[in-house]
Amino acid sequence: MPKCRARLSLIGFLCVFIGNSPAWSQVAVHYINVGQAAAALVEFDSGLIMIDAGGEATSDQPSGEVYRQHLIDYTNGVFAKHPAWNKTIEGLIISHPHIDHTMLIMDVLKNFTVHTLVDNGAECGSGMPDLKKARAWATQNHISYLAIRDASIHAAGYPVHLLENPGPDAPQVLLLSGGRGCLNPNNDSITVRIVTKEASILFAGDAESEDTGASKCPVSLAKCVPEMSMLETRYGNTDLLKADLYLEAHHGSPNGFTPEFLSAVAPSISVISAGDPLRAGPEQFHGYEYGHPRDIAVNELIKDTTGTRTPPVAASVFSAANTATSKNVTPPKTVSIDKAVYCTCWDGDIKVAYAAGSHEPTVTTDSFRPPVKPQDLPKKKATTKSKP
């Protein structure tokens, strides 16, 4: 049977027959440690998808260089196993235009060939300068571009054909949400569901359980139903939220879950993408500042995650944020976790691999954690009360 390379464009669907069909089998998901940010690779037998390309500011020159170089090196390592792919990413999906999801997008585009760029069509957010450059790059380099607005999402999700041979045995890539024009850009996240014969995989971007915040966007925006609630309502009577492997929304934030949502997902393995618990600078936007991952979010993940990990991990979690206006400094605390809950903040890079026909994955971690420069460590110290 001939092989069909599918391409999305603004004018429709193009299918070019180029040879024999691949035999679909294994899938591996790589959660790359890019600090208080998100970037993941989904590796199939005959293609690679990237979901988000964020990074975290550091005192390196240029800022974030340690994570920038690590993302490029890690992706090159995956491509080294597949020389025939010619360093090609079939689809690059950006969940929403915040800098912790877009910071390294141009580095990806300049170092690798990307066939299709997908985003939510938004015009505002801290990561828009990078995303606008990426859209321009796509136009200049004849890369297919798809803007996903929520109005185009069907009751069964929106299928996108990013990989070769979009036949009945091929992996399914479904988008469950798109841009809605929310005041809170997190609630405009594209939720991605990937299904293979081996596993179902869910990415929920930075979807929240609340919709707060103001916008300086020149485009008219509105207060939205929080995305968690919207997803529960839209898919609560289906299995589309159920996932074997789940990336926790919003970096383990206290507003990145609801008990009802996690109960519907009921993952075997959960992953959090968050920053080094002791990186507090430069400037803002760090896990230490936000208090990510938060203990209440981790506890809920522990409750709803069915798998286990051996040996248990000594995990750093926060009970509160450490913003500039915080009256008290709340350092992370260490807890022991024996459920299959992983975090780039304490595990480094995380690879979850399913062999062909197997529903039992192999999880490997590498403890990648770049040293925090002294100037980026927390400045305030927690005070301890003397015993009476």
Account of the protein in words:
- Helices cover 19% and strands 26% of the residues.
- It has helices at residues 65-80, 99-102, 105-111, 128-140, 227-235, 259-265, 287-290, 295-304, 344-347, and strands at 2-9, 12-20, 27-31, 39-44, 47-53, 88-93, 113-119, 144-147, 158-159, 172-175, 192-195, 200-203, 245-247, 269-272, 308-317, 333-339, 341-343, 350-354, 362-365.
- 49% of the residues are buried.
- The radius of gyration is 20 Å and the shape is globular.
- Mean pLDDT is 90; it is low at 1-24 and 383-388.
- The chain is built from nine helices and 19 strands.
- β4 and β5 (47-53) form a beta hairpin.
- It has a single domain (23-356), classed as Ribonuclease Z/Hydroxyacylglutathione hydrolase-like (Metallo-beta-lactamase, Chain A, 4-Layer Sandwich).
- The protein has 388 residues and is α/β, with parallel strands linked by helices.
- The strands form four sheets. The protein has an eight-stranded mixed β-sheet. Strands 9-10-11-12-13-14-17 form a seven-stranded mixed β-sheet. Strands 1-2 form a two-stranded antiparallel ribbon.
Structural class: alpha/beta
CATH architecture: 4-Layer Sandwich
DSSP strand content: 25-35%
Number of continuous helical runs? 9
At the fourth level of CATH, the homologous superfamily is Ribonuclease Z/Hydroxyacylglutathione hydrolase-like
CATH topology: Metallo-beta-lactamase, Chain A
| CATH top level assignment | Alpha Beta
Please give the domain count: 1
- Mean pLDDT equals 90
Order of SSEs, N→C?
Answer: EEEEEHEHHEHEEEEEHEHEHHEEEHEE
Q: How helix-rich are the residues, as a percent range? A: 10-25%
Ranges where pLDDT stays below 50 over 5 or more residues in a row are 1-24, 383-388
General form: globular
Described by its quaternary structure, the protein is single chain
Euclidean distance between termini CA atoms = 80 Å
Major sheet summary line: 8 strands, mixed
Task: From the alpha carbons, calculate the radius of gyration and give it in angstroms.
Answer: 20 Å
Work out the number of β strands. 19
Strand order of the largest sheet: 8-7-6-5-4-3-18-19
